[in-house]
Each structure stands twice: as structure tokens, then as C-alpha cells.
Amino acid sequence: MKLSKEKRNQFLMVALLTSGVLAGLYFGLIRSQQQGLTELNDSRATARDKLDLVRQAIHNQQLIETELDQQNKLLATQEEDMAAGDLYLWMINFITRFNTGYGLNIPQFDKGGDSTEVKLLTKFPYKQVTVPISGTGYYHDIGRFVADFENRFPGSRVLNLDLQPGPVQVREEREKLSFKMEIVTLVKSSSM
Fold first, then answer.
1. Cα–Cα distance between 140 and 159 in angstroms, integer?
2. CATH architecture of 87-191
3. Is the dihedral of CA 143, 89, 187, 115 positive or negative?
């Protein structure tokens, strides 16, 4: 079937016009609707992820509370070994009680300073107190004392340990050493 030139032009014009209207509808309405749907799906996925996190937190609430209670009990236990009250007297009693069984002779407790800010960590909720001590003992006794002390009391440290040959008075004590060290311990927050 042959179309006349005029009919063919009209047909092409209608086809072009229809294509233009369809393209206009696609770019004007459909594409913007598709972008809106994509954004809506993305926001819905984000909201679903947040909801899953909230549900998980609600589900784990009991576990989190239990863990918090355990950590608070652990902290309270560790605070029992922290200095409180008259800090100098507390340190003397603390070290004297711990020294039982180590065979160290600690006749001198130098007056330590007042409690000071912890120098190692900023904004740390505790203060520290330092007491220099000196005495005599055998090398292995001093070593056991320092190791056991630092392992038993995580809030206390031995610093500036200085070992020197001891004063020879009796033949049996020839191997004894003189020592000087500083004991640093944390101070309870409530006693500052």
C-alpha cells in the first residue's frame, strides 16, 4: 500500500509528535517519579536498619544491664585497694600488711606528697599519691615483692626502684641489698 506524500508527512508528523509527547511524559513525570521512589526506598532501608538496631538494643538490654552491673562490682572491688582517709598512714599500713612473708626490712617511709592529678592520663577520675620507701632485702625477695605487688594491686605501681649493695654487718647478710622505691597508688574519688 502506497501512501501519498502528504499522508506520509502527516503520518511522520504524528509519529514525531507522539514520540515527543511520550519523551516529555517520561522525562517530566515518570523519571522524577522513579527518582522519588528510589529515594523513598533508600530512606526506607535506612529506617529499617535503625529499627533493627533499636530492636537489637532492646533485645540486649538485659545483657547490657548485667554487664554494667558486673563492671560496677569489679570497679567497687578495685576501689577497695585504693587509698582513702589519711593517705600517709594508709600507705604505711597498706605496704606493711603486704610485706608480710617477703622478708623485706622497710624501716623508712618518707612522707609522700598530697594527692595529685594522675600524670599519665588526662581527665582521669582519680588522683594519685606517692610514698617513697627504703629498706633492705635479698634480691629475690625484692623481686617477688615488686612482682606480686603490681599483680595483686592494679591501681598501684612501683616506680624508680634503686638497688645498691647493702651495708655489710653480719656475714649471713652479705648478699642483702639496700633498696629505694616509690609506691604510687590511686586515691578513691570520694576521699579527695
1. 18
2. 2-Layer Sandwich (3.30)
3. negative
CB atoms within 10 A of CB 127: 19
Residue written as grid cell 545483657: 63
* Cα atoms in the 13 Å half-sphere on the side-chain side of 5: 0
**Gap between the Cα atoms of 59 and 127, Å rounded:** 38
User: Residue 167 pLDDT more than 60?
Assistant: yes
Domain definitions of the chain by residue range = 5-59, 87-191
The pTM score is 0.59
116 CB neighbour count, 10 Å cutoff: 13
Mean pLDDT throughout 166-179?
76
| Residues ≥6 apart with Cβ < 8 Å to 187 | 82, 83, 84, 87, 115, 126, 127, 128, 129
Q: Does pLDDT of 1 surpass 70?
A: no
Q: What is the CA radius of gyration of the chain?
A: 40
Average pLDDT over residues 21-33: 83
Confidence category of residue 191, pLDDT binned at 50, 70, 90: very low
